[in-house]
Amino acid sequence: DVKVTQSSRYLVKRTGEKVFLECVQDMDHENMFWYRQDPGLGLRLIYFSYDVKMKEKGDIPEGYSVSREKKERFSLILESASTNQTSMYLCASSPHASETQYFGPGTRLLVL
Amino acid sequence: GDSVTQMEGPVTLSEEAFLTINCTYTATGYPSLFWYVQYPGEGLQLLLKATKADDKGSNKGFEATYRKETTSFHLEKGSVQVSDSAVYFCALSDRGGSNYKLTFGKGTLLTVNP
User: Fold this and answer.
1) What is the C-alpha separation between A43 and B112, in angstroms, rounded?
2) In DSSP terms, which residues pair with B74 in a beta bridge?
3) Is the Cβ–Cβ distance between A34 and A76 less than 8 Å?
């Protein structure tokens, strides 16, 4: 079974803090994705990566950056957290040229 | 650009009732279509998919048929159970080069009462 893990299930941070959300997959997938999920808005793509050290902006990249130094790990960084970044963050991975994505359990982030 | 529209919830049904969740899409090409399910406190899981027109995806008693003429991919189940309570997302794939991105609908919350 494909396993995608996220470093925290729940996280509470203060406005202005730098926040790191980590995602690890154990199936040697090339592609990795970060989404945020908000009520009434569904899932929105923040950033994605097709290979190590490669990244591309999704639909809502503002206020976020990413890092992919190793194939299995994809980090989402909030440089200076703000209250409007309070959300559920979901990581996903997929094999090269595959349409099916596999999701982690999510990190619920609260920014105070 | 590509988009997915699914019926707004919440949907509340009694056990053994028939379920339909409507999904329509707009796409420039010929996307594959998906239904994902999110159980409480969990991430999304692939429920079923269809890759071309008239294909039917099925899993766990759920079915959806890719209808190109109506640009639809409605989810159905003949008899729901309490354990089907979850949020259901319709999605389409968008091929950029040799890799894919997914575009999701907003999700439909289903609650099944005993």
Assistant:
1) 23
2) none
3) yes
User: Could you give the CA distance from residue B85 to residue A37 in angstroms, rounded to a whole number?
Assistant: 18
Distance from CA of B91 to the nearest CA of A (A): 10
Tell me the chain A residues in contact with residue B101 when contact means C-beta distances shorter than 8 Å: 33, 45, 48, 58
Shortest distance, CA A64 to any CA of chain B (angstroms): 19
* Nearest-10 Cα torsion for A51, A57, A61, A64: 30
pLDDT range class, residue A2, cuts 50, 70, 90: low
The candidate with the shortest Cα–Cα distance to B44, out of A76, A37, A11, is: A37
Report the C-alpha gap between A52 and B112 in whole angstroms.
Answer: 43
DSSP code at position A70 = E
C-alpha radius of gyration, chain A, whole number = 13
Is the Cβ–Cβ distance between B13 and B20 less than 8 Å?
Answer: no
Nearest alpha-carbon partner for B67 in B4, B107, B35, B25: B25
Model confidence pLDDT, tens digit, residues B44-59: 999 999 998 999 999 9
Residue of B nearest to A99 (CA): B100
